[in-house]
Amino acid sequence: MRIISYLTVSLLLWLPPLMAGPSVRQYPLDENLVHEVPVALDEGTTVFLFPSKINGIYARKVSLDLSDAADFTMTYQPGQFYFTINARREGVRDVVSVVMGKRVYQIRIRAEREKPVLTASFYQVARQGKAAAVSPDKLLSLLDKSKLYYQLRQHYPQDAEQIDHISPKNVLCYRDFTVTVQDVWRYEAEDTLVFRVLLKNLSDLPIDYLANEIAVRVGQRIYPAALVDAAGVMPPRSVVPVYFAISGSPEGGRNHLSVNNRWNILVPRKDKES
Predict the structure, then answer these.
(1) Cα–Cα distances in angstroms (integers) from residue 248 to residues 188, 197, 229, in the given order
(2) Closest CA to 93 of 45, 59, 65, 67
(3) Which of 84, 176, 210, 226 is the most exposed place for a label (fewest CB within 10 A)?
(4) pTM (2 decimals)?
(5) Alpha-carbon torsion (220, 126, 183, 166), positive or negative
(6) Which CA distances in Å does 242 have to 140, 216, 225?
(7) What DSSP character marks residue 154?
(8) Which domains does the chain have, with CATH numbers?
(9) What CA–CA distance (Å, rounded) separates 146 from 68?
(10) pLDDT tens, 43-93?
């Protein structure tokens, strides 16, 4: 279901500054991916949290014995949902294999003193093409969060680090107008990307477009917008911002789209005769 919001959201919030610090990150459970997690060195400890009981953990350079000369130390009790790891020296790396159910998940760890991940939380992803639909209210909250992203990054950098973001600023040319891809944000848990694009009318006449049919093309696949914040018209010689979100795939599964894709934004004109 597509929903169009024509409301201009003005959220001027006073946010007290915080010191930049270690982060909390979420990672999808996927046996086909190897996630890299920078673990704590000297201060703090990195907690790895899983959605169900862990059956086993295996690594070459990680030891439960503090007296051992291993590169990393671990605390873990069989049957728990979590374990912790600390690095013992600079520059060390290893791969940890976590067995959960009938699947094995690989995690590449490395020592990090300045900005370690203190909580690495792994969540279950939908399988066999099924994905939980993101509610309209949740999509709207992600749009609003994206609009506040630069304030969030300034005052709460540890929260902003959990959001994948890129500002490609590539320009797409249409007849009488251009589209600049200003910002792209990805929210991994919701498998949702939010776009901020700038529509520039190069003509002396208004241009009407179908806001509810805005879409993104990646290669040969087209992802229709699930939520759009746009007025549907470009005034003459103007630049208007448009926010929209794509969520999941057209088939109902996860899209797994990175922010680093080459984005082709589709903005169809309104037929004057309709």
Answers:
(1) 11, 20, 19
(2) 59
(3) 176
(4) 0.56
(5) negative
(6) 14, 13, 12
(7) H
(8) 3-11+131-266 (2.60.40), 31-124 (2.60.40)
(9) 46
(10) 889 999 998 889 999 999 999 887 778 999 999 998 899 999 999 999 999
